[in-house]
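Why Aspartate racemase? Reviewers of the renewal asked for a concrete example.
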Amino acid sequence: MKTLGIIGGMSPESTITYYQQINRLVNQKLGGNHSAPLLMVSVEFEQIVQCQKSGDWQKAGEILAQAGQKLEQMGADAVLLATNTMHKVAPQIMEQINVPFLHILDATANVIKTKGLYKIAVLGTAFTMQDEFYRNGLTQRGIEMLVPDAKNQQEIHRIIFAELCVGKILPTSKQFYLQTIAELAQQGAEGVILGCTEIGLLVQQNDTVLTLFDTAQLHSEMAVGFILGDEL
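Here is what the prediction returned.
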């Protein structure tokens, strides 16, 4: 098996999801007591949040690039960034490492296209829903992106940072997300990308008839494909 390096901590809640899912998938594939050879650098999330709030993406990119370099030095055969929003600085990370970077949009778009879908809604942080890096990334991969209206975006963002990132799962917030998904379906969305790796803690496929694309799950599946390689 190959060794995967994970840049985590954004937030710790979703990083736990990655660790569990990757190890469980490897065990399902290989049986016995097999688990994934993983390395992790978990950054201080408040530092990243402050960079987001101040718009200092250069500094955030430097922090994460240093984490990627550290993982490579520790022996990682590839690097995975366990968050959607901070893929905004993925180019900075990729410039500083010499091993493959497993991009969350590749993992997600590949599955969407296999289902023959094109017009997909995205729920995520305000940065993911509003900044062009995510929309352009999907467009380049052949997918049209829909987002909620400005008011709903604000509440989606608030729930992520004030609740999900600190482990709060509230029924009222779940209902709000599901109502937003229903509205997006009326606007023509053929599916929904859970474009923040914490959202899967709140909303699951059995909550809605619209196809959900849980980025944390899909990214974890990509990771396992890399780890096992020829063993699959």
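The first strand starts at residue 4 and ends at 8. This is the kind of structural detail the renewal will allow us to pursue systematically.
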